[in-house]
Write a structure and sequence with these properties.
alpha+beta, 10 strands, 8-stranded mixed beta sheet
Length: about 190
């Protein structure tokens, strides 16, 4: 029994290394769940735990996450002091980052309220930066608004957004008092279905 247990644990260790390597190569949570489901005897619940708790990259600081996003330019006001990383929620694995588009131009302040009325949770900077790092070319197609707010020294509410600035990736801030056309994707959290 001791030898079998040792072999199982040894296989799990290399399996986790493989999952981490796949994650580092850009595999999404869905990719990893499919790989686990097709190649292991683990039930879905255990596969979800492996993906969310073990294979998930751990970025310990705002700076680590920002580096993973590989931006060419970042607003100096987009920093850990103005946008602190949100803590991990106990039910975090039940919520996925989702990109929502309004069908018409939406005022930024109203958008936050309307997204919550639609049943979404606002997406903090930690989860949003993980998403941007996993999908680096998405912001080259259209702007992505991170649903986290900060009030600047002049009293204006701002939200970070990732887009293409002169062909390069950038993370900037935008005033929420303005209108956002439907091409803007709002990063929110939705219940996994």
């Amino acid at each position: 029994m001791g030898k079998q247990k040792s072999d199982i644990l040894s296989g799990m260790g290399s399996g986790f290394q493989i999952l981490k390597a796949l994650r580092d190569a850009g595999a999404t949570d869905e990719d990893l769940r499919r790989i686990i489901a097709e190649n292991s005897p683990f039930p879905k619940l255990i596969a979800d735990l492996i993906v969310t708790k073990v294979a998930k990259p751990v970025a310990s600081t705002f700076r680590d996450l920002l580096a993973a996003c590989r931006q060419d330019w970042v607003s100096p006001d987009f920093n850990g002091a103005n946008y602190p990383l949100e803590p991990t929620d106990p039910d975090e694995a039940e919520w996925e980052v989702y990109e929502y588009h309004f069908s018409e131009t939406a005022n930024g302040e109203d958008a936050f309220k309307n997204l919550e009325k639609l049943g979404y949770r606002l997406c903090g900077v930690r989860r949003a930066m993980e998403f941007i790092a996993a999908y680096p070319d998405l912001q080259l197609d259209h702007p992505l608004v991170i649903t986290a707010r900060w009030q600047d020294p002049r009293g204006y509410w701002c939200a970070p957004f990732a887009d293409r600035g002169v062909g390069k990736r950038r993370l900037d801030l935008v005033y929420l008092a303005r209108g956002f056309d439907p091409r803007y994707g709002w990063l929110v959290l939705r219940k996994r279905g």
